[in-house]
Specification:
The protein is an alpha/beta fold. The chain has 16 helices and 12 strands. This is AB hydrolase-1 domain-containing protein.
Length: 397
């Protein structure tokens, strides 16, 4: 049973780090200590349910105690809480409520950073322990669940990425954030791009991570993707069976986890993929419907595009297409030997690129002071720092 727990608890890239049973015990003990330390915050988070949803109860807690996925969810909450974030729910007043992790204490000297997740589980699973603890050292971090993910929901019929962007912007406004840097992962990249296009003054910099912003509706029929229809794509991206879950892992990882027991996959599907399935399918359809590159606006903000060279969900060609669309305003980074899930496969390299682009650049030190003496024949510049003299502008004799 411990082996099964480790498979789901630690991402695939961590398995090679577990050299012995003692290593496992150390990791588990550390997470347990964090969990106990932050238990009060976690209990508060569970009680912050949006209107119309069932309240947290003993029965739901009992069910979660027998779910490995739910246990992992609790530990992720502990990681976010111990990283200085707190769980909030914002009622937008139009039938929409958005759950968002926000700083417990916002520091005015730090830039504000918005992280937008992709399809799949909630935001915690996608921005978890490899990214959040690093970012909170440098930024005021905001991590919302997009509509129909986690604890975010709407009764409205809108399904476009523009609607998602407007909801996120209103949450940031409610938290008094006026200027932000944005990172969008996969589906979140579509939302990040729309946010930058619609709210130019609020968005300073954008990172688009493996998001096919420049895809066109005709690309499916023309064979750019491994699948032929949106229905087929949705069945894989929103898996409802262990077989589809394994197919999704083959699409997203260069080296997918092997021999993952079906009971683990069923547990994950039951906990994370059963709610709002039809609504999420509508989100996927809305991305492609009548989409043409000629109608996609060019965002003015400095932009970084990050892609895995073996991405099968959104092939690398879409990254190059976005780079051509934005021109010199965008830099592109290709992470070698990774697929769509490079945030899991190579998190350190991913973070390195994000940090170099998002953090304020420290201006270089000024050159050492110089003294200049001008004569009719020549200009002599003497560098005070090292005593060496350089002679320039000496006319020919």
């Amino acid at each position: 049973m411990l082996t099964l727990f480790i498979i789901i608890y630690f991402p695939p890239r961590s398995w090679t780090d577990l050299k012995s049973t003692s290593d496992v015990n150390i990791l588990l003990r550390k997470d347990l200590e964090e969990f106990v330390e932050n238990i009060e915050d976690i209990k508060k988070d569970f009680h912050q349910q949006d209107k119309g949803r069932p309240k947290f109860s003993v029965n739901t807690m009992t069910t979660k105690c027998f779910s490995i996925t739910a246990s992992r969810n609790w530990c992720l909450r502990s990681t976010f809480s111990s990283s200085g974030l707190r769980s909030t729910v914002t009622d937008l007043g139009d039938g929409t409520t958005i759950h968002c992790w926000v700083p417990k204490t916002r520091k005015e000297t730090r830039p504000d950073l918005l992280l937008l997740h992709g399809l799949g589980a909630n935001a915690m699973w996608q921005w978890g322990p490899d990214i959040i603890p690093r970012f909170v050292r440098h930024f005021n971090v905001y991590v919302p669940d997009l509509v129909f993910f986690g604890d975010s929901y709407t009764t409205r019929r809108e399904r476009s990425e523009s609607f998602q962007a407007q909801c996120v912007y209103r949450v940031m406004e409610a938290n008094s954030v006026k200027r932000m840097r944005v990172v969008g992962l996969s589906y979140g990249g579509f939302v990040a791009y729309s946010l930058a296009a619609e709210f130019k003054e609020a968005v300073e910099r954008v990172v688009i991570c493996c998001a096919g912003v420049c895809l066109e509706e005709k690309d499916l029929a023309e064979g750019l993707f491994p699948v032929k229809t949106l229905e087929e794509a949705a069945d894989i991206l929103l898996p409802q069976t262990p077989e589809k879950m394994k197919e999704l892992m083959r699409f997203t990882f260069v080296k997918p986890p092997v021999k993952t027991p079906n009971c683990i996959l069923v547990d994950f599907i039951d906990e994370m993929n059963k709610e709002h399935v039809e609504e999420k399918k509508e989100l996927i359809h809305a991305l492609c419907k009548d989409r043409k590159i000629s109608e996609i606006p060019k965002i003015p903000q400095p932009t970084m595009i990050i892609w895995g060279d073996k991405d099968q969900v959104f092939p690398l060609e879409l990254g190059y297409r976005l780079k051509r669309h934005l021109g010199d305003n965008a830099d592109m980074v290709v992470i070698k030997n990774t697929g769509h899930a490079y945030i899991v496969e190579k998190p350190k390299e991913f973070y390195k690129h994000l940090k170099s682009f998002l953090l304020p650049q420290i201006p270089p030190l000024p050159p050492p002071p110089t003294t200049t003496t001008t004569t009719a024949a020549a200009t002599t510049t003497t560098t005070a720092a090292n005593g060496h003299a350089n002679f320039t502008n000496v006319p020919p004799q």
